[in-house]
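The records we work with from here on pair a chain with its fold. These numbers are not coordinates but entries in a learned vocabulary of local backbone shapes. To see the layout at work, look at the sequence and tokens printed below.
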Amino acid sequence: MIPEFAIMGHPNEGKSSVLSTLAEDDSVRISDTPGETRECRTFPVVIDSREVLRFTDTPGFQNPGRVLVELRRMVETESDPLAAFRTFAQEIPELHDDRELLAPVSAGAGIIYVVDGSRPVRRVDRTEMEILRLTGKPRMAIINCKDGVTEYLEGWKLEFRKNFNSSRIFNAHRASWAERISLLEALKSIDQDWQPALGEVVKAFRRDWAERNEQSAAIIVELLSTCLRLEVSGKILEENRLESTRKKLLEKYGRKLTAEEHLAQSRLRALYKHNIFNYQLPPHSLLHSDILDERNWELLGLSKSQLMLTGALGGAAAGLGLDAMTLGSSFGLFATVGGLLGGIGAIWGSENLAGQKKILGIPLPSLASEQLQIGPVKEINLLFILLNRALLYYRHIINWAHGRRDYEKMQENGADENFTRDWGKERMSVCRDFFAAHGGSEQKLKDAEEKMRRLLVKALTEIGDQ
């Protein structure tokens, strides 16, 4: 049997936000108008084309006092008091919502009761809790602290201990994937009979997340490879038009980079089931800026030590080739000198050639040349700009709860960050080999892409665990 939970509570307490976040479904209607939900609606959670769990949105309690009176009476006289109450309320219009909200519970669903923890416990809340206790169904209470107010938490916890199998604090607007998994783990404890089924649900969620990280890594690798191979060219029609031609080509190059990035971002959004709101980012995020904007190069590019390291790795690789040709008689001299010269060259080049023109490998043709080409990129820094922007977008996507709708107030989940700034030699070597492989054989590139994909899976997992 597929586990089902009815999301219940007083109107406008955050039920729909909790459901949207748990089900990863941003199509759930969320409104500030009390009583907006009038009918039950079920949202299946599907993994690998198989439904593993379902949540049902319910109307809020409308007449809890009367419901409690009738339900207490039926508990004493009826073998199935919930079914008896629903039959009784069928012809009473003012009990429509109360009858509807108990339908999934009557059919066997567990209960997730949602309250707004930013306010004190009221008498009507205690009435609702007593109704749910009388159902005899497995039940968990969730304190949805929408505004971060904590002064009333102890009062809520005290009431929950009397009426529920378990309770959790869960901010539906800020919940990360790890917090959703933690909540599902807690649901296993509300009834021993439910533990095996919910245990399988949690395993399915974890497998699904790992698979999505694999797919995310593949999307990012594809983005990087496409951008590193990208090139644009144009004719210089007149001698005095060299600079204007270069400027136009650079703008065209930037637009193509942005288009590829947006395509990858749309694929990531779809992968993590963000289907309604597009390109909603914090107002001051670097992701709003053009990829070729100077701030990206300053904040997301390589540090001097990393430039030294990547240059040394590249020089050492070339030197190792020379050592092989001398059958080892050089005693590693070429590799040592090559690494040293590569590192110095990377630092000197980044500081002394003209900014983006050097970074992008833009040629400086003679006035007699008729053709100007930008790309494929010749300097590794662009790889890290694109990579850090992709990791930043990934973090934003996985931490944006599906129940959140306050896009106009949104802030970044963590500041803009250079994720690769602290990467060590092993990871930098993978990146350097990946970059260099774009000028090599197809098999060499395929091998380098696979190593890069494995590296990114680790990096994405680390970001998700933060």
Q: What stands out?
A: Residues 173 and 406 are 9 Å apart (CA to CA). The chain is about 55% helix and 10% strand.
